[in-house]
Write a structure and sequence with these properties.
It is a single chain. Helices cover 73% and strands 0% of the residues. It has one domain. With 413 residues, it is mostly helical. It is built from 15 helices and no strands. The longest helix has 41 residues, at 166-206.
């Protein structure tokens, strides 16, 4: 019994660590467009988002119940399975954060949970119908619906405000962005914070502390809300840069349309108990708003990398979760080794992230030189004497020579 209590404590702490990574991984969902358009200063934005995430955690438990009693069969699942699932989810979260890719923390958790459960008890332990209806279908539908809504909202927004002055509309839409960003943060709390509540509740059920089908206790709700709020305040600056400037260039009206559309989709899904990816919803809305503005563009190279990460999240986290479960099945030494590998992998990713840090001070810089590279690709190279001089001096910067001086005209008598 003493070992069970210790293991449960380890699982609960690990779940809160996942919740913390979920917070800073998904800060971009609510605040990337607000920061990129200058509606709020970065630190102010993440502080506001953290508070509203905490508030949102108390508004509903529908998603938590989906996770704690819907995705896998609680009977026959050991507490070690939950630990293994969290290892897969945390490592995938950190890896995609390092790459600056807005992947789904939710799907990382689901993948880790499914992989660990299958390794422990076989495919029969997974409720396939629940996975399809409440995970896979929302995963495909949410970014499409949010993207279409944002595209239409952006076009409508520009049509309504076309007669107004640009300064007046920008000021109004910046205020609207702040409101809609707050709504996204609140929605994020109602959806993502509950995933950790659900996983802790599931661990308590497997450990015999709670009866199957129980709602999350109050202390679970409070601790999960605080963990995700702290992670949000830390700020996942790498992903904020990708969402705010890497996918498309957003003006205040676009930011307002994107955030309002995403918040609507997330809140509706939370009400229905669909555990969708807030990341995918917000990313789809950002791309939709980019396409909705006349002359707007979406950087499809960045979007493609993001789509690949979305597709890999479930299987990749599932494989890591299954591997971790294979170790934990070996007994105490396997659990200790799994924990050590989690700490070592997390530390390695952190060290690698320090090579090119993204902070509050440079989050709005050109992401990975995308814009600079595009401009350089279409700038004509120097020719003639300018090119010869550049080659001789080693100054190979791209320059555009000035116009030749007008030849002197012959004097007239």
């Amino acid at each position: 019994m003493e070992h069970i209590t210790l293991l449960l404590g380890i699982v609960i702490v690990t779940a809160l660590v996942f919740d913390f990574t979920n917070g800073f991984h998904d800060t971009a969902n609510a605040m990337a467009t607000t920061i990129s358009t200058g509606a709020l200063k970065p630190k102010t934005a993440v502080a506001m988002s953290a508070v509203l995430n905490l508030v949102g955690a108390f508004l509903s438990v529908e998603v938590a119940k989906t996770i704690s009693g819907g995705i896998i069969d609680e009977e026959g699942i050991r507490t070690e399975v939950i630990f293994a699932a969290l290892v897969g989810a945390i490592l995938w979260n950190l890896l995609t954060w390092l790459l600056g890719l807005p992947s789904s923390s939710s799907h990382a958790l689901f993948g880790g949970l499914i992989g660990a459960a299958v390794m422990s008890a076989g495919w029969s332990s997974v409720n396939g119908s629940t996975v399809v209806t409440k995970v896979l279908i929302p995963a495909v539908a949410a970014p499409v619906v949010a993207g279409l809504a944002a595209m239409l909202a952006t076009r409508l927004t520009y049509r309504i405000s076309r007669q107004a002055g640009e300064k007046a509309t920008s000021k109004g839409y910046r205020a609207g962005q702040i409101t809609s960003a707050g709504l996204v943060s609140l929605a994020h709390g109602t959806n993502d914070a509950q995933k950790t509540m659900g996983i802790i509740t599931l661990a308590l059920v497997t450990g015999g502390v709670l009866a199957p089908g129980s709602n999350p206790p109050l202390w679970v709700i409070v601790s999960a809300g605080i963990a995700i709020a702290l992670g949000t305040y830390l700020g996942g600056w790498r992903i904020i840069r990708t969402m705010g400037r890497g996918l498309t260039d957003l003006a205040p009206p676009q930011g307002f349309a994107a955030q309002t559309s995403a918040a609507t989709v997330i809140l509706a899904s939370s009400h229905l108990g669909f555990s969708l990816s807030t990341t995918q919803s917000c990313s789809g809305a950002v791309m939709g708003s980019g396409l909705g503005r006349k002359g707007g563009v979406v950087r499809w190279s960045t979007a493609t990398r993001m789509f690949v990460a979305w597709g890999l999240t479930l299987p990749a986290a599932g494989l890591v979760g299954a591997g971790a479960e294979l170790l934990t099945k070996q007994g105490t030494w396997g659990i200790v080794l799994t924990g050590a590998l989690l700490i070592a992998g997390s530390g390695l990713i952190w060290v690698l992230s320090r090579r090119q840090p993204v902070t509050v001070d440079n989050v709005n810089d050109d992401p990975a030189g995308i814009v600079t590279a595009a401009i350089a690709a279409v700038t004509p190279p120097p020719t003639g004497a300018v090119a010869a001089t550049a080659a001789a001096t080693g100054d190979l910067k791209t320059t555009i020579p000035g116009p030749d001086a007008e030849p002197a005209r012959p004097a007239t008598v």
